[in-house]
Records
---
Amino acid sequence: MASRGGVAELNAAFQPRTFEAWRVLRLGTREVIDAVVAPDHRGPSPELAQALAAWPGAHYWADPEQGQLVLIRSIGPARRERWLFHLVLFLLTVICALGAGAALIGAWYPPEGPLTLTPAVGRYLGGIISALVGGGYFFAGLLNGGWREILPGWSFALPLLSILLVHELGHYFTARRYAIDTSPPYFLPMPPTLSPIGSLGAFLRLRTPVLDRRQLLDVGAAGPLAGFVVTLAVLVWGYHTSQPLAIGHETPGDFVTFAGRQISLGDSLLTLGLRRLMYPEAAALYLSLPAFAGWVGAFITALNLLPLSQLDGGHVLYALVGRFQSAIGFLTLIGLVLLAPSSPSWYVWVVVVLLVGGGRWAHPSVVSPERPVPRRRRWIGWLCVLIFIGTFVPMPFRL
């Protein structure tokens, strides 16, 4: 599977007999040299260390004890990114998150859209179409000076988008560390007439295949781990600024109001522990905007860490246990369906996960699935499992 270009590159960059064996793979716009280093050059030797420092790409030791070294370099012209498109998506998400934050504190109320025409027309169009048209009214209102009304939502938008951005940058920079061809983050704006958080999250695309389970673990885990650090800080800040309510309040636990309508929030082990630690006498907690941003961040972290298909949790679990991820993913899917009668939003997430995974809950194979994650790196995956257990909310919303 070696190519002449790969062999020539090896001969030019490394001394003779540096490698005992190697193979050269072309993965999209990347060339991967999977080599076994000769015993005299492991460690590495000064000569190999100097050659690796000059290597025009990425490298890592897949198995230092066995001398397995992976070299990756880009081939062909660099891809031109559509930075303006990504920026527009991000700015639209900022606007929608500001609108959601303003609605959460009652500074702005979503327009009713077509329901203002006649009751009959409103009933015919239905709630979803009404909300979509209301989204058009939302953006039209901003152009007519309504942008001032959504500015008070900054204390929700800023922490929420910080969590989402740090999460995606964790994926992005780790993928770049392995020279994987990856896109910048795509943010998904959602008008506050359709979503109380103003966004459907964000994602990025890996445009070249993942070589082995180590790469998959590091790239998959980097986003949730980085985002969780910010989430934890936002939760502590937000809970400090929230309003505890005395025993006897009709709605126990955490809650928010959106455009005057109360939304009760389910607990994860993390939010339950924080509330009991900071407000042991409170029966309920009216969340501040930063607190709700932190709650959403923790909830999104748990959703991403579900061990299914192309979600981050699917990446992590496949990296840890290989093909056994399929069985665990199936049991997870059954568990979500069983939770759905008590919390119907899980029906939606099951459909979304299956759409993202092309109808599958099993994770697709990497190029070299037989190579396990080195033992010294497995803690990264198990830490993700612990974060999932701490942030999962069985019944997220009670309207």
---
Amino acid sequence: MSYKESWDRVTTSAKMPLPDTMQAWVLGDPDELSLVHKPLPRPRKGEALVRIDAVAICATDLEVISHGTPAMVEGGKPFNKNWTPGHEYMGTIAALGPGVDEFEIGDRVTVEIHAGCGQCKRCRMGMYTSCHNYGLNYGDKNKGHRANGFTTNGGFAEYAVNNINTMIKVPDTMSDEEATLVVTAGTSMYGLTELGGLVAGESVVIIGPGPIGLLAVAVAKSLGASPVILVGTRDNRNEIGRQLGADIIINPSIENAVERVKELTGKGADYVVDCAGNETTVNDAIHMTNRGGRVCLAAFPKNPVMFDLGYLAVNNVYLYGIRGEGRSATHRAMAFMADKRFDASVIHTHTFPMESLPEALRYARERVDDAIKVVVSMRGKGNAVGAKA
């Protein structure tokens, strides 16, 4: 089948003419990115072609580009496979695969990462971020799994193909940059969902004022949690947490966080979400939780950690881990953001044009100019300093 014939069943529009090729960043050796031209990807049944308008940089992108994991491409690490990273993107639908009528060409959408395989036990339960067929989408091992920016080509490109289940319409009142933050808010929403979801009137502690932690504060507050306590050592980020709804700030470099939480809540917090992911914060999370309470690990510790398992068992504390933004949490996060329950854009600090992706990654990795969330604009925007474009 020729390239042209393969597009015969794809719906396109003269209002959005499509090129034969596109620009995309591809990963070579670790930390080696090149801007190349690739053929325009074709949407299949249940998919749409998205013209990418903006993509945010996640800490996991930095991990993938440097170390490969948790990405898995063609059965192994993603290096030197003509593969494009990036997963927190939004854009405009440019073409529709066969049978797709849930969206129209020209719709602005933001995307979640994981489509899963759709056929394993976990996918059928809505836990597609825990797909049993993770990475199996090639050759005779093709189970249909898709996780753009992890097992399939991602968003550091001009176009990407997405399953319709991963796309969420963006309201006209929302900027491109804010729309890229829906995945981050969705991860925070997923953590609170797995802890039970009904946090109204319950005490919630968030450890770590990174992007996920800050938006976890916003989501918890929007869900009615009281009090919402943020634990963090960086005063400027703690202040952003206060803007997003934190009732109380604890700086563990100044006071004992566990003792302070117990003092504020009486017996300990009902729910704790650890967004820092190191041995100290994991143990603090367990020890500041009330008997029968719940702890969510929303961060990826780089090394194995030792923690007080005996305390967890004796006090009937429940421990949960999450990956990504499962159970359609991103859709619920968009509902909150569209309704202006909180302003996620306060964590967006810098914008770069597509051709400056390596510099954008440096800002994110080194936290240059106190960068929190760095966005790459495909529409020519860019201002590295204080950069809300």
---
Amino acid sequence: MSLRPDQLLQVTPAGLYCPPADLYVDPTRAVDRAVITHGHSDHARPGHGAVLATQATIDIMRLRLGQKAVVGAQALALGEAVTVDGVTVRLVPAGHILGSAQAVLEKDGCRVVVSGDYKRRPDPTCEAFEPVASDLFVTEATFALPVFRHPPDGDEIDRLLVSTRAFADHCHVVGAYSLGKAQRVIALLRRAGYDAPVYVHAAIERMNEVYVRHGVDLGDLRPVEVATAADLAGAIVVAPPGADLPGFAEKAPDPIVAMASGWMGVRARARQRSVELPLIISDHADWDELIATIDENPGELWITHGREDALRRYLEVRDRPLRTLALEGYDDEAGA
């Protein structure tokens, strides 16, 4: 007799829980057993007794949380399966950042897929999203409004490069989240033929080292902290949004401020951050990607966090139920 999806996955105060395996997926507090979909801090927290994740995610967690914060970690390759108390656990690519994965749980003919954060478009820094049919699909909905249709990332990088040529004496400072977005922006610049040094903030430099160890070529990278005024004239700097850059104002007194985020499609957001060159580059699925993914999964649908109203209407006219979890502890802003 097959299990029902709600027997294989349940919602608890600590997050998504699989009772047959006694494990959680991206729990919001420390638990005995956790499957971690990726290394962003709203999904990867310290203190778990045992962690199952990709090697890249484990490496990212150890860098961000400390070696002692990630004990009992077991690395699982993408596509590899392991059995935990009769439940088959498999990680498949999510296309979000390096090491990101969807958690696939199967037992007695029932399959549940927890997406974590994901996107469908190609990314030179991580493996592409892999759709998996399921009886229950648990999805994020960060950009679940029809207004969010992200342009091709190559077009946004071209806009940045056009600006560097038009303002060749100015430094361009690109605000980008230190894990995922920064490395993607750099890799996209390299793919577009930009081979000059890219200057990076120290927080990004440490994360770059993990990416390089996992085979992502980011080209010539240099610390912005030791760059001279001559170095920065006409250069591209990548730094976390709002990061402190000591002495930077003296070396690059009139920089052009850019920011890479899916939220840069909202003009008010760009104005609030005094962004002169908004770059709509997101590591989350836009409306069309969400709809394509949901349509590929005809089973039950749960939303962990995000904007569900438009999705609810879309599904209502197709007689498909939707359960909104509104899980606390997930951040729609970081890394978007």
---
Amino acid sequence: MTKKYLRMTLNERFQHLNLFINFTLLVITGFALKYPEAFWVSPITDAPLGMTFRGFLHRLCGVAIVTLSGYHLLYCGFTERGRGIIKDMIPGLKDAKDTWETLKNNFFINRPAKEIKMGRFNFREKSEYLGLIWGTIVMTVTGFILWFKTEWLMYFPMWTYDVARAIHFYEAILATLTIIVWHFYSVVFNPDIYPMSWAWITGNLTEHEMKMEHGLELEKIKAGERGELKEFGEAAAIGGGRVYPLPEGKEKNFSLRRLVGTVKDLNETMKDWKGTQEKDSK
């Protein structure tokens, strides 16, 4: 049986599914407003009150994304695993080195290709995550400006509204292309994991997938299973640092019989000590 490694908990998979559904609906309903004559928009425009419903659904999904973002902040701030995710998502010098070596592999500068061992989150995933944070902030701010146009223009000139609309549109294009070109390749079209990485459904990665994308993390996990002391450049899922071995010569399994024997021996020792003290006092 192929060994599995936990990648996403049920909670994290729910967050990802929520993001996937709402982002997809935002893309469809958003570009439908910009390109109402496109062939794929006809099911919306031909339906009674179709464009009215489009606007309602677009705003509803936007609020859902903002709500999910708030929940994700609470998850990362108040759960041990969430704090571990944030800690492991912080880019470091090793990510820059991994990016450079990956480019050299892709352009055949490294011959043969160099094996790159990456941590829990590789440089691509960190870039996507930081991009998601940036995109969510930009789209939320500009989205509310477009939603509450009248209130905004009471305090700011018209050109600020036009700027917000342009930013909202081009950021939407950038976000859509990032998902289709970058993310979909990483989790779907990559020959090493085709037809798809099932982690977003099952929550697990195979050992082959771990070795290909998170070799350093796999070494950490295996070292922990063997009880070896090992230093790691990347933080662990929770807490990070070292994995300490059991002292040599000690049994790994807890023995109730051995514990009872130790207590009995201690009790006899105390009795002998008390007897000796009484004799000395007499």
